[in-house]
Amino acid sequence: MTEPPDPFRDVRELIRRGDRAALATALPGGAGEGAWPYASLVLVAVDQDLSPILLLSDLAEHTRAIAADPRVSLLIDGTGGLAQPLTGPRVTLLGRAAKTDDERLKQRFLRRHPDAGMYAGFRDFNFYKMSLERTHLVGGFGKIRWIEGAELLAVPPLPELAAGEAGIVTHMNEDHGDAVQLYAAKLLGLPGEGWTMTGIDREGLDLRREGDVARLAFDPPLPSAAAARQTLVALVQRARTA
After folding, report:
1. Is 217 in a helix, a strand, or coil?
2. Domain residue extents for the chain
3. What is the pTM assigned to this prediction?
4. Alpha carbon distance 151, 135 (integer Å)
């Protein structure tokens, strides 16, 4: 029996492809004033469960705002390159941001944004994980809806894959860099040499070259963490015959 199509697969892919976002916080006002909406540009990575990961300076206005009210939203824009941007997709994520010392999350962010390693260790920088409570999707004119966080995550993450992700990425970059390059060039049609793998989750893998990021989706999603190797090998074979 054929599985029904997943209505939110494209939304998850849009979230995972993003490497920057507009962060909106509630900036405390002066005496007698309420909070002001405050938007700023941040780098973002997302965890296996789609929870955004941020690296913020204690000196930034948005960090001070989060200390007063942890409720935040992130706008991820997928309209780049369109002649009419308002016809393209964008999604706003709503949740609460909290500091995290989880080393796995830190490394996932730094693989996505390697240049951030220059300041990630400074005492006035901290990592934050944002809960994903609701999302507001605008897929173009008339394509608008709210999606609950639990509803969006129809394909739950694989804990074993999360635990082994760093090892898989290191192995692919150090021992199979040619395969990673094939993914980029043959399967995604991307120019240039030097693409590296930065992450893998149940539904795809993430690539980076200098300031560019890309995403290669798996179809179907991985049924288990053990299936990752078989899928990566199959993608190489497909790329070589492309």
Report:
1. strand
2. 9-152, 159-240
3. 0.94
4. 10
